[in-house]
Design goal:
297 residues, four-stranded mixed sheet, 9 helices, 6 strands
């Protein structure tokens, strides 16, 4: 089953004196980039979550944010005495450096010290209380990650439907190009004969073999059979990928480059306004499909 690289899910709950909320979202990326924002005092939770997230996705930039708050507001924060002395020393050094330069720094207050990171922080329980909380969160967030994966799968299914329609358009336009290329053959042949007659009339010593080589090269440059055949092969390959399981985004991205290459060559060799118009329409549909492919895992 094909997955999209975009997805979102959220959940909330309570356990052991804490309320928690968690959000996970993802966007497209070349590889897998997992970024977790989890309180560092929840020992072992980040490792567990990274493994769970990695089991749900192969590509994408994934951000998971977990926020906790104490239900007991009185003990929600505590003074970290270990961080207090370095914070005071830093403020004293800043004050001294400013005065040495003739500056008069504004007086700082206890409230300023409390804003220094690490001085006044959420209170944590002892290890015996943290371990059950980590176990609860790991279990509670597992369904959240399943919901996240299901959303990516659902969006992937929608992308497949869109791309199948675009492939049908490409196939229809390719068939039109083949018909136009076949219909223009008499005109191309007549143009070659006319050019040959002018060349032979104006050059008595023209080398027949060289003339034949030049005409053959002109004919090859005007022939779009190979481009149309390759477009047909790319259509079949793309459909095979869309019917497959697993990550196929990179394969489809490569195919879109090949699609575009053939459409460009078709336009450059068309020698027909009608065929050029079909080639330009092909390029437009291919570009639309390429945008969809960027979201496929």
């Amino acid at each position: 089953m094909i997955h999209s690289m975009t997805g979102f899910a959220s959940a909330k709950g309570a356990f052991g004196g804490y309320d928690w909320t968690c959000e996970i979202r993802s966007v497209n990326a070349k590889g897998l980039d997992i970024r977790l924002r989890v309180p560092d005092w929840l020992t072992g939770l980040e490792t567990a979550l990274r493994g769970l997230v990695g089991g749900k996705a192969v590509r994408g930039s994934i951000n998971l944010t977990l926020r906790l708050s104490r239900t007991d507001t009185v003990s929600a924060y505590a003074l970290n005495t270990t961080a207090l002395d370095p914070a005071l020393d830093a403020l004293a050094q800043i004050d001294a450096a400013a005065r040495a330069r003739g500056l008069d720094p504004a007086p700082w207050t206890a409230a300023d010290v409390l804003q220094v990171r690490g001085v006044y922080e959420p209170a944590t329980d002892d290890g015996d209380a943290i371990e059950p909380l980590v176990a609860h969160l790991t279990e509670a967030l597992t369904p959240l990650l399943s919901e996240f994966a299901e959303m990516r799968r659902s969006e992937g299914a929608a992308l497949v439907t869109v791309m199948q329609g675009q492939l049908q358009q490409i196939e229809t336009l390719t068939a039109q190009a083949a018909e136009l290329a076949e219909a223009r053959k008499p005109a191309v042949a007549e143009a070659l004969r006319s050019n040959l007659a002018r060349v032979m009339d104006g050059a008595e010593r023209a080398d027949p073999d060289r003339v034949a080589q030049e005409l053959a090269m002109i004919a090859v440059k005007a022939d779009v059979t190979e481009e149309i055949d390759r477009l047909g092969a790319h259509i079949a390959a793309a459909r095979g990928h869309l019917d497959a399981n697993g990550p196929i985004g990179r394969k489809l991205d490569f195919l879109m480059q090949e699609f575009n290459r053939e459409a460009n060559t078709l336009c450059s060799k068309s020698q027909s306004s009608d065929l050029t118009a079909v080639g330009l329409e092909l390029k437009a549909v291919i570009d639309q499909m390429r945008e969809q492919v960027q979201n496929v895992e």
